[in-house]
Amino acid sequence: MTMTTTTTTTMHSNHIAGRWVDGSDSTSNINPSDTDDIIGHYARADAGQVTDAIGAAAEAFKGWSTTTGQERADILDTAGSEMRARQGELADLLAREEGKTITEARGEVDRTIRIIRYHAAQALMPAGEVVHSIRPGVKIDVVREPVGVVGVITPWNFPLAIPAWKIIPALAYGNTVVFKPADLVPASAWHLVDILVRAGLPDGVLNLTMGRGSVVGDAIARDPRVSALSFTGSVATGAHVLEAAQSHQARVQLEMGGKNPLIISDDADLDVAVSVAVDGSFGSTGQRCTAAERFIVDERIHDAFVEALAARMSKVVVGDARDPRTQMGPVVDARQLEQNQAALRRAEADAGEVIGGELVEAPRPGFYMRPAAVVGTKQTDWINVEEVFGPVVSIVKSRDHDEAVALANDTEFGLSSGIVTTSLAKAADFQRRSKAGMVMVNVPTAGVDYHVPFGGRARSSFGTREQGTYAREFYTTVKTTYVGAGTV
Fold it and tell me: Is there a catalytic annotation at residue 358?
């Protein structure tokens, strides 16, 4: 199938204080399915421009925070309607710049639209309560108010959905935003901002500052005018962001990945187990923080599971993300591809047997590899400890259910965990004993709804949960007012 491209030399600018502004330099956005295809050029902001953006957001907060919920809801609803009308175009762009399949890209755009419309509705919901005092004649009003300027720093693996689930509730609750998308995938983020701005956001309410994390992200985190900062990315960068933001007592929300386990019980339906494993681990080329990277398989079903898994993996069609026949697209860039291959070499050196993982030749140059599983690993091997963030899984044997649960919990991360079993007792026991923030029973560890809380424990997350009504906890602050009987 021949893929059409619209390679362009257009410079896409940052958006600061209601104006599109060129940066100090720029980056080229390259298609990982075809490295000869340049999607466009995107300006990089410098620290001074970030300072200007934060200043604009602080000034705009004075007016935006006093708008009605209806005004905010109308703007968000307008943005959602345009995105729905352009869903095919935006999905094609997303697949082209990030490398997830066109089916997955359409799903991400759809999810983004639903996030926008959900929080448009939330903008109209009551945001407080009246409480009776313990003292006669005194009424207590408890209300929620926006926190102020919110910094948003997002990763490359969900170029639309993750920015949306941070930016949209921030705006819905009356905050202003300074947004830094991943330097690797600026196109989808640029279009999201463009759509929101044209939907009617006043100048300075939403500012786009593209560029390097060491420059733009650091400047956002350190500025004392930023009242809250929501970040998704690596553990190392998250620790830096936390230290910088808390130096001026900003509230901080961090999502930083995982080493998610999937238990395959001895009573599991083999077909269900393989489907759950493949979908959860190799969807989006394994580049999801919720992907299962560790399979903990009961020794009584281990060999049959590995055989069935290998057979299913061998049939996965790897290719251009926009080809409808493709089941797994490329890795996002050359650096990530080398990290994946290095992880397999290290696992092999630790006496693991690697199934799959080969580099794939394609008609156009890209970052292609087959899904990989490492068999025969020990719990203490590097491959079972550190996140790979690619289509690479490891398999560990367990003697029984209790050992499987112990192995699943034996990690410094705690984002998502799963079990495949036909036993209600085992499912309930694992749900109770798992130390992850999200527990999946007979469904993939990756794949969550937008209207319920998202987040983990330990090294995976810090701060309040994201998404759904739980977003309100981060993007608003509580004010308690006492009103005496003599007040007229």
Answer: no
